[in-house]
Write a structure and sequence with these properties.
Blueprint (H helix, E strand, L loop, with lengths): L1 H45 L5
Length: 51
Amino acid sequence: MQPKKAAEQAELEGLHKRLAWLEHHLSRRDAALEVMGKANALLELLSGGAD
């Protein structure tokens, strides 16, 4: 049963690594969307709004 447990542990570690990677990229995406929203609001303000 030892090899099965080692394989499960390796899979779990891989899943933790994948989760960390996904959380990092999700955070970057959210930050980019926030910047884009602010840039859009600024452009609307500078152009006089949506008439």
